[in-house]
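User: I'm putting together a teaching handout on how sequence relates to shape, and I'd like one worked example. Could you take UPF0309 protein JS521_14865 from Streptomyces durocortorensis, show the sequence you're using, and then write out its predicted structure as C-alpha cells right after it?

Assistant: Happy to. First the sequence, then the C-alpha cells directly below it.
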Amino acid sequence: MSDSKLAGQFFDAAIGLLTRVRDEEADSIAAAGAAVADTVEAGGRLFAFGAGHSSLAAQDVVYRAGGLALMNLLTVPGVVGVDVMPATLGSALERVDGLASAVLDSSPATAGDLLVIVSLSGRNALPVEMAQNARALGLKVIGVTSVAYAENTRSRHASGGFLRDHCDIVLDSKIAIGDAELTAPGVEAPFAPASTVVTSAIMQAMLAAAVERLAARGVEPPMLRSGNVDGGHEWNGRVMTEYRDRIFYRH
C-alpha cells in the first residue's frame, strides 16, 4: 500500500507550526519557564486549566512520568473532556458567566501561585473570567492560546476581551481559526486539527525551560518518574510525600 498523501501533509503542517512556535515564541516560553521556576522556588503551587479539547494539553502536564510533581489540574465539572452527556454540554458551560469565579473560590489556589490557562480561541467567558479572577486573587497567569482568534473573531465575554488580554505572559500557538490543517476534494469541511500537538509541545517546552532554570539555580525540581520502570513507584511516593502540601491529586 502506498503512503497516504494527506497523512504526510498533516505531519508537514504540524512540523511547520512547531517550527514557527519554537522560533517565534522562544522568548515568551523562556519567560513562562522562569515564572514557573520562580513559583516553585518560592514555595508556590502550580495549576493548569483547559476546557474541552484544550484540557488535553493541561492534563498532559499533570501527574505524569517526566513531569513536575507540583503541577495540578484545576477542574471545572463538565468541561474537562467529552465524557459528559450530551458532549455539547461542555461547550455550553464555557459560555456561562460566573462559573470561573465559583471554581476559583472553592479551589486551593491562592496568592503567589501560578495558573496556566489553555484556550485555543480564548473568546469564551470561562477562560477570560478564569484569568481575570486568578489575577485578582494574586496568581500569576500564563495563557496558551491562538492570537489569531483575538484578531479576527469577536469575544463572547461581556467585557469584549479575550484570554490574551488578562494574562501576565501569553504563548501563541499560531493555530489558524477553525483548527483544521487540511482540505480535500469531496470533503466539504476542513479537517485534521493540530492544536493538541502544538499546544502540548508548548506546555512541555515551558516546563523544560522551568526545569533548566531551577537546575541552574541549584534547586532540585520535584520530578515524577514512570511507574513502569523499576523503582518508579518508590521514587514518586517520596516526592508526593515531601511535597504533599503543594499537590492536590492525592488524599
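A couple of points you could highlight for students: The first strand starts at residue 46 and ends at 50. The chain has a mean pLDDT of 91.
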